[in-house]
Recover the amino acids of this structure.
């Protein structure tokens, strides 16, 4: 459990060095503070705030407690924290809201769920050039896009059928992109990576849930990682089954790997293990071309 002492949304200007303006208090059931129980799911009250085009939204809050839930890979954005309330330094163990949403009518709600490659880690700071961000921008304001990518995550985590998958299943269209961490590390607390059949089993569990929820799903295969021979054999075997797995559960299939490797060497990570902005652009372009009709574009 932890306590929110205060929370604000603000206009961050055009960069992290600009003055923060338009500080607007965020309340919870009318109160400026809130005690949060373990595993509690909650929303703030609605807030009205005008952010000019090309300006950043700043989220600021004060939270206290032990073992506060946090995102361990938050260096996509300018994120700082302070213990004394005055001296702020960069920190990548920062508790962040799961969603800051705009209340508007949209054509489709789209969610991407996956690992750090989906989250966008190791792309240029504050650039929002990774594939999920590029697709969100390409879709535009007539669509809602929720990036639920999480660093270190595996299909076995998502297949627990808990709150994380539950968020994604609230969307109209869900993108599922796992494989890398399953192959390398396997289940949480396990003793090594999963084989192709095990990973496919977890992905099948996820697709079965999406099918039952009536959520249209697009399955990505596992991207290249410049693996050693043993791990590459697992990735190849997994990707050989993914299209059939998608068809079995009524999902669409996207050859993610083909966009990120040279045609003469499918095992090579052309844009890096965490694809850079150029890789994100290649994925976005191929994705939008293949799924324009599904997305109503």
């Amino acid at each position: 459990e932890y306590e929110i002492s205060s929370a604000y949304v603000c206009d961050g200007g055009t960069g992290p060095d600009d003055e923060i303006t338009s500080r607007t208090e965020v309340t919870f059931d009318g109160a400026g503070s809130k005690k949060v129980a373990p595993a509690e799911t909650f929303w703030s009250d609605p807030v009205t705030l005008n952010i000019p085009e090309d300006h950043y939204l700043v989220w600021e809050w004060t939270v206290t407690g032990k073992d506060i839930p946090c995102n361990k890979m938050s260096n996509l954005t300018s994120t700082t924290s302070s213990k004394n309330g005055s001296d702020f330094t960069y920190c990548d163990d920062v508790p962040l809201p799961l969603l800051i949403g705009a209340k508007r009518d949209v054509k489709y709600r789209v969610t991407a769920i996956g690992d750090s490659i989906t989250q966008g880690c190791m792309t240029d700071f504050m650039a929002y050039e990774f594939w999920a961000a590029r697709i969100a921008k390409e879709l535009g304001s007539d669509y809602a896009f929720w990036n639920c990518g999480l660093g270190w995550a595996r299909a076995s985590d998502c297949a627990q059928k808990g709150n994380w998958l539950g968020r994604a299943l609230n969307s109209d269209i869900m993108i599922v992109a796992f494989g890398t961490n399953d192959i390398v590390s396997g289940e949480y607390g396990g003793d090594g990576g999963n084989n192709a059949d095990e990973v496919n089993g977890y992905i099948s569990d996820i697709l079965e849930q999406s099918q039952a929820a009536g959520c249209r799903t697009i399955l990505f295969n596992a991207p290249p990682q410049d693996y050693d021979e043993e791990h590459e054999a697992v990735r190849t075997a997994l990707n050989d089954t993914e299209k059939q797995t998608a068809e079995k559960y009524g999902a669409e299939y996207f050859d993610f790997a083909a966009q990120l490797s040279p045609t003469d060497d499918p095992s090579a990570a052309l844009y890096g293990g965490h694809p850079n902005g150029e890789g994100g652009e290649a994925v976005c372009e191929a994705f939008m071309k293949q799924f324009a009709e599904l997305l109503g574009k």
About this structure: The chain has two domains: 1-101, 108-295. The chain has a mean pLDDT of 94. The domain at 108-295 is CATH 3.40.50.1110 (Rossmann fold).
